[in-house]
Amino acid sequence: MNYLIDTLIYAGAFIALLFVLVVIHECGHYFVARYFGVHCPRFSFGMGPVIYKRVDKHGTEFALSAFPLGGYVSMIQKKCLN
Fold first, then answer.
1. Residues 4, 5, 23, 26: which is the catalytic one?
2. Phi and psi, residue 23, nearest 5°
3. Is the pLDDT of residue 81 over 60?
4. 58 three-class SS
5. 67: which strand partners?
6. How many Cβ atoms are within 10 Å of 44's Cβ, its own excluded?
7. Quick one: which of 49, 60, 67 has its CA closest to 27?
8. Are 62 and 25 in contact (CB under 8 A)?
9. 25-78, pLDDT tens digit by residue?
10. What pLDDT shows up at residue 22?
């Protein structure tokens, strides 16, 4: 029985660590894009169905999805660099 509990604890810790790493990684994409003037209409943590979402004052929709196995930042460039 202790083996099962230990396995569940390690699996939960792995998922939590993966979630933190994905958040830090995607925040890097988001902040660099915003610094260079690229609009980000969506910033998602996780994949699959959306559990929670919120829109900030810049029009970016922050979404928390069901499966914390990745994430993405959707980007649209606002101006042309001529």
1. 26
2. -60, -45
3. no
4. coil
5. 47
6. 20
7. 60
8. no
9. 999 999 999 998 888 999 998 888 999 999 999 889 999 998 877 889 999 876
10. 87
